[in-house]
Amino acid sequence: MDSTALHSVASSSAAPNTPTPVVVGIDAKPSWLAGFVGDNPYFQAGFGLMAMGVGATILRQGAKQGAVALQRRMLVTLEMTNKDMAYEWFLAWMAHQAKQTGQTRAASWVKSHNLSVETAFEQRKNGSSSAAFRLVAGPGNHYFKYRGAWMQVKRQRETRSVQAVTGKPWETLTLTTLSRDRNLFNDLLSEARDLAMQDQQGKLVVHTAWGMEWRPFGKPRDKRPLKSVVLANGVGEKVEKDAKAFLSRKQWYADRGIPYRRGYLLHGPPGSGKTSFIQALAGSLSYDICLLNLSERGLADDKLMHLMSNTPERSFILMEDVDAAFNKRVQTSEDGYQSSVTFSGFLNALDGVASGEERIVFLTTNHIEKLDPALIRPGRVDLSVLIDDAHPEQALRLFEKFYVGREIDIPAVDVDRLGQTLAQLVQTEWDAGRRVSMAALQGHFIRTENPAEAVETSQTLFK
Ligand code: ADP
C-alpha cells in the first residue's frame, strides 16, 4: 500500500469534524518522537550547533588542504642542512648581501632582527691571539628579494639532538619561493659558491680545529711568494722538490700498499722562517693549512686522531713547537696545564690508519735535541731540515730585497758594497759564535730606511 492510499483509508474511517493525526508512510516516526524533535528547543539548538561545527570543520579542512595544494603548486622549497657546504656558503652570502648597498647588492634585504654571531678564534704560538666575527641570520624567518622574487629563509635548530662528531646542533635552512622562480635557487647557490671561492682564490686558507672539525679561520690570507722567504742555499728548494715529488707519486704508493703520507720536520732557532716557509710552500702548491695546537684544552687522543684523519682536501697539517708540547713525554702548556693528548696517542695519530688519503704533516721545533727519537723516525718524519739563523749569503739576499732598486740617494754600486760589508760582518760574528736571526734582520731593515745606517747599526743585533 502506498502512503496516499493509507492516508485515504485513515481519513475515511474518522468522523468528519475530528482532526485526525496524520501518519505518513510505513517508516514514519511515531508521533511522540516527531513531537519531541519538532518541539524540543534544546535538540534544535544542539543540532544546529553540531551542523555548524561539522560545517566549520569541513571548511577548515578544505581550506587547509586547499592551502597545501596551492602551496604545492605555487611554492617550491629548498632544504640545506649544516652538514652541507652550501649551508655555510649561503649564510656567508646572506651576511655579504646585508653589508652591500645599491648596485653591488644582488638581493634587497629586509633587515633582520634576529642575528647570530659566528666567531673564529686563533691562538698563535707567540701568545698573541685574534678573533674574527661574522653576523649571520639567526634562527627564525627572514625575507629577501632576489632578482625580483621574494624568498623566505627559515633557519631552524634542532634542540633535542646534536651531531655526534662535532657536538653541534643540527640545523636546517629552508628557502621558499614561488614555483615559477625555482630556477633562481640554482643561480643563488652558484653565486654563494662563487663568493666563497672568490674569497679564497689565490689565497691561503688557514683552518683551525673547531670541536671535532676543521673550520677556516678568519679571512683567506694573501699568499706569500716562496722567494720572499730567504733560506740558506738549497734548503727551501730541497723541501719544495721533495713535496712535489711526493705529490706526483700517489699511484706509486697505492701500487705498493704504502700509506700515502709524508712528514717534515723543520727545526732551528726562533725567527728563522720555519712557519713562513711552510705557509709560502702551501700557497705555492695551492694547499691550505690546518693548524693544530697540541696544547689546546680539551684536545684528547681520540679527537686528535679524528682531526688528523679528517682534514680538508689539499691541506698541510702544521704543528708548531712540538718540543714544547711533549717535554719528557708529558704534554704541558706554558701555564702548566696538561692536556689529555698522550705521547703514544700523538704517535698513533701521526702513524694514522692506513688509508689512501694523502696526508702531509709539518712539525716545527726550536729544540730538536729535546724531541723523542720515536717521533723523528722515518714514517713519522721523512725529511728533517735545519732552518738556521742568518748565514752571510742569506743576510745579503735579505738586504738586497730591502735596498736594491729603491729610490734612495745612494748610488747602486755603494748599495752593493754595503751588502758585501754586511755579509762579511755576519761571517765574522758567526765564526766568533754570535748569530743574528732573519726575523731580527728583517725588523732592523724595516725600521732603517738608509742602507748605510742599517749596516752600521747591525752590530747590536747579534746574540
Ligand atoms: P719561525 O717559525 O722560524 O719562528 P717565522 O716564520 O715565524 O719564524 O718568522 C718570523 C718573522 O720573521 C716573519 O715576519 C718572517 O717574515 C720573518 N722571517 C724569518 N725568517 C725569515 C726568512 N728566512 N726570510 C724572510 N723573512 C723571515
Question: Would you give an account of this structure?
Answer:
This protein is an alpha/beta fold. The protein folds into three domains: 76-198, no CATH class; 221-386, Rossmann fold (3-Layer(aba) Sandwich); 392-461. It has 16 helices and 18 strands. A seven-stranded mixed beta sheet has the order 10-9-13-14-17-12-18, sandwiched between helices. A five-stranded antiparallel beta sheet has the order 1-7-6-5-2. The chain is elongated, with a radius of gyration of 39 Å. The model is unreliable at 1-29 (pLDDT under 50). It binds adenosine-5'-diphosphate. Residues 229-231, 270-276, 364, 438-439, 442 line the site of adenosine-5'-diphosphate.
Question: What attributes does this structure have?
Answer:
single chain; 463 residues; alpha/beta; Rossmann fold; 3 domains; 7-stranded mixed sheet; 16 helices; 18 strands; 41% helix; disordered N terminus; binds adenosine-5'-diphosphate
